[in-house]
Specification:
It contains 15 helices and no strands. It is an all-alpha fold. The chain has one domain (3-275): Triphosphoribosyl-dephospho-CoA protein. The radius of gyration is 18 Å and the shape is globular. It starts with a helix and ends with a helix.
Length: 276
């Protein structure tokens, strides 16, 4: 198995693991479709399997590309992956954010593999940041926002000045490496699924999720973040997270809240967990 094959396998595994984790407040899981009416767990599985070739290609290309324009070279692959996703899901957006986030992590891993550098959390995070910064994508996002945002993330950036997924990536995915991964590793000696639920709750408490903002507004997000942070501040046992996740699921469904950005970064954290 080549390195590109291995990374593609791990990325798809992370995506399938993420959708199967239960309970996930407001999100598609094995119990229900969350705050969604146009997708279910099988939609996500079909989408994830379709992306295997994308992850393999993005890894392979990154292993041979040696100048600062890597992200520009990878962009057409990402756009094609989105088209493949929409084709198999019949127009439903299941993994657009994950295509970028997990694809970037695959690219960073490939760069380190090419340079024979041992992968660690810190080095992988920094390599992701370097790839994004070298393309000055944040400046591109600002210009797009000024002209009229085309995506939910760009619209939120324009209205509220929040950095979105591009800013998260340019910072080296702190939500992945500093929030989700430590929680995964803390509780994973038990059940990985339960550890992932806890990691998701921590992401909900901290991440400026553009999906939540686009559905409910920034004020609702801030209220939710403060409440979740306060609730989990004294949690010590995984059972507390599972009970709270069930309660949040009922609330999120009734309020039409879907933390899709948190789900994408949970999948990214799972990928890194499998890698390292």
């Amino acid at each position: 198995m080549t390195f590109a094959d291995k990374m593609a396998e791990l990325a798809v595994r992370a995506l399938i693991t993420e959708v199967c984790i239960t309970p996930k407040p407001g999100l598609v899981d094995r119990a229900n479709n969350g705050a969604h009416r146009d997708m279910n767990v099988f939609t996500f599985i079909d989408s994830a399997l379709t992306l295997h070739g994308y992850f393999r290609c993005i890894t392979s290309l990154s292993q041979t590309h040696e100048d600062d324009g890597l992200l520009l070279k990878l962009q057409p692959l990402g756009l094609q992956a989105e088209q493949d996703m929409f084709r198999v899901t019949k127009g439903v957006n299941t993994h657009k954010g994950a295509i970028f986030s997990l694809g970037l992590i695959c690219a960073a891993a490939a760069v380190l593999e090419r340079q024979s550098i041992k992968q660690t959390d810190e080095i992988l995070s920094q390599t992701c940041a370097d790839i994004v910064r070298s393309r000055s994508r944040l400046r591109d996002a600002e210009k797009a926002a000024e002209k009229g945002a085309a995506t939910k993330g760009e619209l939120v950036y324009k209205r509220h000045g929040l950095r979105g997924i591009l800013g998260e990536a340019a910072a080296g995915f702190p939500a992945v490496f500093e929030i989700a991964l430590p929680v995964l590793r803390k509780f994973a000696p038990g059940r990985l699924e339960d550890a992932a639920v806890a990691a998701l709750i921590h992401l909900i408490a901290c991440l400026d999720d553009t999906n939540i903002i686009s559905r409910c507004g920034l004020e609702a997000l801030r209220e939710l973040q403060a409440r979740v942070k306060n609730e989990i501040s004294n949690f010590t046992d995984i059972s507390q997270y599972l009970s709270y996740a069930h309660a949040l699921d009922d609330e999120f469904i009734s309020r039409n809240i879907s933390p899709g950005g948190c789900a994408d970064l949970l999948a990214a954290a799972l990928l890194v967990y499998y890698m390292l």
